[in-house]
Amino acid sequence: MDSKELKKEIVDEKTGITYTLVGDYYMPNLYLEPEEKITLNKYGLLRLNYLKKHKKAEYSILFINRELNKHLKEVQEQAQKEIDFIIKDLKSKSDLTEDMKNTNPLYWVGTMNSIKNQAEEIVLKKLIYV
Asked: How far apart are CA 91 and CA 111, in angstroms?
C-alpha cells in the first residue's frame, strides 16, 4: 500500500485516540494538559528537597500523577499560614511591646528572631519533614 493512499488522520474507535500519518507510520496525537506554574518559596523548596532525598516513592508518585506542583503549593501556603499564626501567638505570650522597637531594639529583634525560629522549627517538623 502506497503512502499516497493512506489517510492523513485516523481515529481508533476503541480508545478514541486520533493518529496522524508521519512518513510511513501513524503517530498518536497525545498531549499533556499544561501544569500551573508556581513559584516556590523557602518551605516549598525544603519540601521538594525532602521528598527527593527521603521519600523517593512519594515524590515519584506525585510527579507521575502530575500532582507535585499542587502538593508543593499547598504545603508552602499551609506552612506560611501556620508560621504567621504561631508567631502571633508566641508574641502575644511574650513580654514584647511595640514600644520596645524604639526603646530597646536589640532586645526586640532578638526576641522576635527567637520567636520566628521556634515557629519555623514547629512547622518544619509538622509539615515539611513528614
From this structure: 9
* Whole-number average pLDDT of the chain: 92
Rounded Cα–Cα distance for residues 31 and 60 (Å): 20
Q: pLDDT tens digits for 47-63?
A: 999 999 999 999 999 99
Domain ranges of the chain: 1-31, 42-128
Report CA torsion sign: 75, 76, 78, 82.
positive
* pTM of the complete model: 0.73
CA distance 86 to 118: 9
d(CA 35, CA 2): 40
pLDDT > 90? residue 33: no
Grid cell of 115 as nine digits: 520567636
Helices (H), 94-104: 100-103
